[in-house]
Amino acid sequence: MRVEGISEEKAIYMLRNAILVAGQEMGMGDAAPIIKDTVYHLMKDYEDLKTERRVTAELKIHNKALIDSLEENLPLCPESLRPKAEAMIASLRELYAARFDPVPHPAYAESDLPIHARRMLYLVKTLEDEDA
Q1: CA distance 93 to 123
Q2: Which candidate, 14, 62, 5, 70, places its Cα nearest to that of 42?
Q3: How many C-alpha atoms does 95 have within 13 Å on its Cβ side?
Q4: How many Cβ atoms from other residues are within 10 Å of residue 3's Cβ?
Q5: What digits encode the pLDDT tens for the residues 7-51?
Q6: In whole angstroms, what is the distance from residue 51 CA to residue 57 CA?
Q7: What is the pTM of this model?
């Protein structure tokens, strides 16, 4: 089952619901703590990701403004220090690009994932196998 064209948030909530359904299908006896822990960590990871994205967006704005300000004030720099100041600004621009330019999404081995993510994949796969 593959769903395209939905928002990230909707996909997270669909995944959460799928995990809850998988837990009900398994019977909520011994699996209940695992299901609850997996859902908790999934939602916590998503909230942490949203916070990190907001912080990054703010840092991007302020860092760009700072570098632009340095560049605008470059004419005020004494001629003897200008080459060093230009090199510093170029270095700052490189650091800015390294931090804020998009990076291709890396591929992860399942063994690199945290335990709650591996449980989540297993539960969703269990549901997919039953629906096939």
Answers
A1: 45
A2: 14
A3: 11
A4: 8
A5: 888 888 988 988 888 777 777 677 778 888 888 999 999 999 999
A6: 10
A7: 0.69
